[in-house]
Amino acid sequence: MKALVYQGPGKKALEDRPIPEVKAPTDAVVKIVKTTICGTDLHILKGDVPTCSPGRILGHEGVGMVEKTGPGVTAFRPGDRVLISCISACGKCEYCRRGMYSHCTTGGWILGNEIDGTQAEYVRIPHADTSLYPIPAGADEEALVMLSDILPTGFECGVLNGRVEPGSTVAIVGGGPIGLAALLTAQFYSPAEIIMIDLDDNRLQMAKRFGATATVNAAGGEAAETVMKMTGGRGVDTAIEAVGVPASFVTCEDIVAPGGTIANVGVHGAKVDLHLERLWSRNITITTRLVDTVTTPMLLKTVQSRKIDPKQLITHRFKLDQILDAYDTFGRAASTHALKVIVEA
Ligand SMILES: [Zn+2]
Ligand SMILES: [Zn+2]
């Protein structure tokens, strides 16, 4: 089968690989129908993710059809259409029992990281019963690809951890796919204001279409001052960090109002400055989280009932044998205006 393989920092190739087999009784082998590329895949390619070794098939998002199941799989049968979660969960360990699937002792984020992933014609899914979700009949499978990772990530790490409430003021720093997913799902709670901050005017325009009440271009280095002016000097109740660089975290520290929350979503590769000398007395909460995908079934219902339309995030479509072009388009988002690219297997 064809598969996109990480070959070490800066190197990737479309290779021929054997079709994966069921290894454990609880495994399923899924034939990929549609997958996508994530910002995290670019982090791996930069060499930022040491758990991912050369030779690994990348990808942790997608929808497909069950091809084979181990004898321990009871919830799925060959032929079932499934949504693949970016987080694999045994459902039984201490962390899984607490709903913290991201820290499952035999799972978590392993797909396209510690085990071969979804940017291929087939993928082996461990703990299939608790790591796959059935796709309802008639569902738009392209839209559901957005539910493997980015929608639950924006919602759980940004909106839920950020305690977005009716009438509250929210700022999202970073208008990439994750920031936009947070923007879409924040609106479940009817905040009064959602301010999107980014460096790219195209992304800010998208954010307006997705429901941002105001946008701030951070290019001039005065994003924090602008947000403070917009909020009458008060700041925002929720500051969602959706970039993962020191400057964007500092922006969140600069704009959070007393009693507010900084919800970190970004993948940080370097330390950031924690300004406790300013924050210590301001009743601030800072949260971190790796997505648990516990809200996936709920999000699936909101997509089915058209409360949100994650398909808006899809900007480009490719076939699996064009996946190198897909990476190129996704990697040059500033000039290609790419958000999520769909790769059809
Ligand atoms: Zn991802
Ligand atoms: Zn577990």
Notes on the structure:
By secondary structure, the protein is of the alpha/beta class. Helix content is 28%, strand content 24%. Strands 3, 4, 5, 6, 7, 14 and 15 form a 7-stranded mixed β-sheet that branches. It has a 6-stranded parallel β-sheet with strand order 10-9-8-11-12-13, with helices on both faces.
Q: From N to C, what is the helix and strand string?
A: EEEHEEHEHEHHEHEHEHEHEHEHEHHE
Quote the beta fraction: 15-25%
General form = globular
Determine the N-to-C terminus distance: 10 Å
Corresponding CATH architecture of the largest domain = Alpha-Beta Complex
Do you know the CATH topology of the largest domain? Quinone Oxidoreductase, Chain A, domain 1
The whole-angstrom Rg is 20 Å
Number of helices: 13
Unreliable runs, pLDDT <50, ≥5 residues?
A: none
Protein name: Alcohol dehydrogenase
Family: Belongs to the zinc-containing alcohol dehydrogenase family.
Keywords: Metal-binding, Oxidoreductase, Zinc
Domain Alcohol dehydrogenase-like N-terminal: 25-136
Output the keywords.
Quinone Oxidoreductase, Chain A, domain 1, Rossmann fold, binds zinc ion, 7-stranded mixed beta sheet, 6-stranded parallel beta sheet, alpha/beta, globular, GroES-like_sf, 345 residues
List the helices and strands and how they pair.
Blueprint: E1 2-6, E2 12-16, E3 28-36, H1 39-46, E4 62-69, E5 81-84, H2 94-97, E6 122-125, H3 128-131, E7 132-134, H4 141-145, H5 150-160, E8 169-173, H6 177-186, E9 193-198, H7 201-210, E10 214-217, H8 223-230, E11 236-241, H9 246-255, E12 256-264, H10 276-279, E13 285-287, H11 296-304, E14 314-319, H12 323-331, H13 333-336, E15 340-344
Parallel strand pairs: 8-9, 8-11, 9-10, 11-12, 12-13, 14-15
Antiparallel strand pairs: 1-2, 3-4, 3-6, 3-15, 4-5, 5-7
Helix pairs in contact: 5-6, 8-9
The structure holds zinc ion (ZN) (2 copies).
